[in-house]
Fold this sequence. Notes:
Blueprint: E1 2-4, E2 10-19, E3 31-42, E4 49-58, E5 71-79
Antiparallel strand pairs: 1-2, 2-3, 3-4, 4-5
Amino acid sequence: MGHEFKRDTELYLELFNQQDVGAAAGTENLRETTLSIGGRIPIVRKHWLRLIGMGGHGLIAATPVNGQPTWIAYVGIQFLSDKRPRHGDE
């Protein structure tokens, strides 16, 4: 789920669940279940450059064999190359 605020500032909430269905019978399946929050914020005029990021936490206890992450996060820079006017860029 997400919401766009003024001028392309966005906030998102994500529930992610992925399971390895091809694991051998009798073994614990690899699984990732996380809840995360993230967003995008323009950092220059005309909104062609954005700061993006996300942080989240695993919802299932991590063990050495289940593949469950405890914490996940990323941060990055997004470059937009489209020359068409964007929402609110008149």
